[in-house]
Amino acid sequence: MVAASLVNPGTKAVFPLMPELVTRADGAAKNDCEAKAVARLLLHVRREHPHLALTVLMDTLHGKAPKSGSCGSWA
């Protein structure tokens, strides 16, 4: 499972948003990969919360061009 969270550096509160499961696609023998789940999560968060100014933090596993490039179009 991957999830987005709302955080504020001035507080200790963390609010999880929209978890995205890493699941099997219809008829697939193997689970989906985490990278595809993150891509779906980013699309869902932007669609459901277009008014939020977001900072996306990811480790190097998720630093590939397709996901990081889609974040650049949010400005």
Protein architecture, described:
By secondary structure, the chain is an alpha+beta fold. The protein has one domain (2-72). Helices cover 31% and strands 17% of the residues. It contains 2 helices and 2 strands; from the N terminus they run ββαα. It has helices at residues 34-48, 65-72, and strands at residues 2-7, 14-20. A two-stranded antiparallel ribbon has the order 1-2. The radius of gyration is 14 Å and the shape is elongated. The model has no long low-confidence stretch (mean pLDDT 75).
Secondary structure layout:
Elements: E1 2-7, E2 14-20, H1 34-48, H2 65-72
Antiparallel strand pairs: 1-2
Order of helices and strands: EEHH
- What percent of residues are in strands? 15-25%
**How many structural domains does the protein architecture include?**
1
Spatially, the strands of the biggest sheet line up as 1-2
The major sheet is characterized as:
2 strands, antiparallel
The number of strands is: 2
Number of helical segments? 2
- N-C termini distance: 27 Å
**Low-confidence segments:** none
Shape: elongated
- Backbone structural class: alpha+beta
Mean pLDDT: 75
* Gyration radius, rounded: 14 Å
Helix content: 25-40%
Question: Can you tag this structure with a few keywords?
Answer:
75 residues; alpha+beta; 17% strand; elongated
Quick recap:
The chain is an alpha+beta fold and 75 residues long. The protein contains two helices and two strands; from the N terminus they run ββαα.
